[in-house]
Amino acid sequence: MEIKTTELYMKIQDALQENKRYIFLRGSSRSGKTITALQHIIITALSQPDTLITIARETQVSIKNTILMDFKSVLTNLNLWEDSRYNKVEMVYRMKNNSIIRFVGMDDTTGKLRGMKSDIVFVDEVNTVSFEPFVQLDIRTEQYILAAYNPEITEDWWGLEYEGKDNGIMIHSTWKQNPFLDNRIIQSIQELKELDPDLYEIYSEGRVVPPREKIFVNYDKYTEEPRYKERYIGIDFGFATDPCAVVEVLINDKDVYCKELLYQAGTTNEDLIFILKELGIDRNTQMVADSAEPKSIQDLKRGGFNIRGVKKGSGSILYGIQKMKQHRIHIHEDSTNLYREFSELKFKKDRSGRVTNTPIGDDHLIDSVRYVIMEFADKPKTTYHFL
């Protein structure tokens, strides 16, 4: 069998020759960590009959459109994928030699992890996983654990202790060691250097960066109407104490232009519909809002607007922040509340003075921008508008 892989594959093999139990793959974006780990697991399953392998991520929901798709792609490239061998309900793939590969979420509410034995475990994005469920997998794993992650971690992250064990190892990799990357992906990674130095160190160089208290640094002000390719409206609903926040977001590749349209408490849905129409917004403009307010979204739909709820899941706030930091944010000079939120939003410090990953501060208008970027940015478009 011929397989195209990166040098990381042999480094995993070398670690196993050294009897390492905890093999942590720390690397940049697109360094090949996940695919190489899957290749290793599949080859092992094929060559060792009756092997029981567990592939895990933070949540069960996140598996379907991430690691499972990668797993299927690797098997397909090897001409080995068979639909009949995959049980969608149990999320289990059975090889012809009786090796079993199952997919589990670490957000276990049934106690399943406590009885789940494995020969080999692979935890993808292990930096998003809590310590306790990892321990539950560890104490029931016969052979070894592979764990892949981008180094967006705190100084006291529990995984560092496992890397430092006598039977543990950290293998570092970057996209430069992956010979199969498209030039457009390489360019996108390299552009991070101009957008956010910390993100560049993490996602291009695969280095650990001490957390920064101030969340955003990649923003400035604009005055003249910009050239843009897409126009959207983001809404964060509010009423009694929290203001209703509406932002116009214009996107031109990596440049995002944000204009505060409404920042007002006590706004009913009827008020909001009237205000949006007064602003000249109609059903031709795509809008996105907090999906936690389905009734408000339905009210606006009945009011004649093209609105949807943002797709959210576990960790969506931090994911959205990282997506925002991958763009150049420009704030209209009249958007005083929006500029204030960008200036003041920080990550909370714990009692020891260490920076956590919990945002603190007003973020109502920022949330409106975040919804737009999460829902629409960096996705193929065919319609263009220029001023």
Written as H for each helix and E for each strand, in order along the chain, the element string is HEHEHEEEEHEHEHHHEEEEHEHEHEHEEH
Shape: elongated
Neighbour order of strands in the largest sheet: 3-4-5-2-6-7-1-8
Instruction: Tell me the fraction of residues in β-strands, as a range.
Output: 25-35%
Structural class based on helices, strands and sheet pairing: alpha/beta
- Biggest β-sheet strands, sense, barrel: 8 strands, mixed
Polypeptide structure, described:
31% of the residues lie in helices and 25% in strands. It contains 13 helices and 17 strands. The strands form three sheets. It has an eight-stranded mixed β-sheet. A hairpin with a 5-residue loop joins strand 4 (92-94) and strand 5. The termini are far apart. The model is unreliable at 381-387 (pLDDT under 50).
Task: Name a few traits of the molecule.
alpha/beta; 13 helices; eight-stranded mixed sheet; single chain; seven-stranded mixed sheet; 387 residues
List the helices and strands and how they pair.
Elements: H1 8-17, E1 22-27, H2 33-47, E2 52-57, H3 67-77, E3 86-87, E4 92-94, E5 100-105, E6 118-124, H4 131-138, E7 141-149, H5 159-163, E8 168-173, H6 183-190, H7 192-195, H8 197-203, E9 219-222, E10 230-236, E11 244-252, E12 255-264, H9 269-278, E13 286-289, H10 294-302, E14 306-309, H11 316-325, E15 328-332, H12 336-344, E16 346-349, E17 355-360, H13 364-376
Parallel strand pairs: 1-7, 1-8, 2-5, 2-6, 6-7, 9-15, 10-13, 12-15, 13-14
Antiparallel strand pairs: 3-4, 4-5, 10-11, 11-12, 16-17
Helix pairs in contact: 2-3, 11-13
